[in-house]
């Protein structure tokens, strides 16, 4: 009789111990899986932030704005229009006078936007070409914002000048700022924009 009771007790103890060990092991596996999923999610989020893109542009006539919106649609980037103080005249003849005076006097107009670039890795910078060079507010842009470690892709709209005429000015503006300045492109036509974005793997 005693042996029978002892056998039952031993069996119960063994069963309880087995259940406990199984539960502990299963809990560790679930915890490990949870940590792995959390790490994977964090890695994905950080990767997403690291590769996020922004289109920043100024447009007076609407041509550069149209190009910027095309880039935004094809890349899925965020988009911001720069605001000046004072703003440039909408009248073309007056605009040319102001733009030339700023160049001659080396005036850097004020940009009103406060932009947080920390979450972006690539910045598309759009501007019209005035007097065969970037407008003077582009000087302000690189002075105002911290773009260290960012890739900057310039694009311009001009019927006569390619991005090549602006490149020497852009290189000078970004010198010693640890910015990765791309060659950029003239964005007058959608086909040109699409080709550049695909060649450089910027399309979504």
TrEMBL record:
<feature type="domain" description="Flavodoxin-like">
    <location>
        <begin position="53"/>
        <end position="204"/>
    </location>
</feature>
<protein>
    <submittedName>
        <fullName>Twin-arginine translocation pathway signal protein</fullName>
    </submittedName>
</protein>
<dbReference type="GO" id="GO:0016651">
    <property type="term" value="F:oxidoreductase activity, acting on NAD(P)H"/>
</dbReference>
<dbReference type="InterPro" id="IPR008254">
    <property type="entry name" value="Flavodoxin/NO_synth"/>
</dbReference>
<dbReference type="InterPro" id="IPR029039">
    <property type="entry name" value="Flavoprotein-like_sf"/>
</dbReference>
<dbReference type="Pfam" id="PF12682">
    <property type="entry name" value="Flavodoxin_4"/>
</dbReference>
<dbReference type="InterPro" id="IPR001226">
    <property type="entry name" value="Flavodoxin_CS"/>
</dbReference>
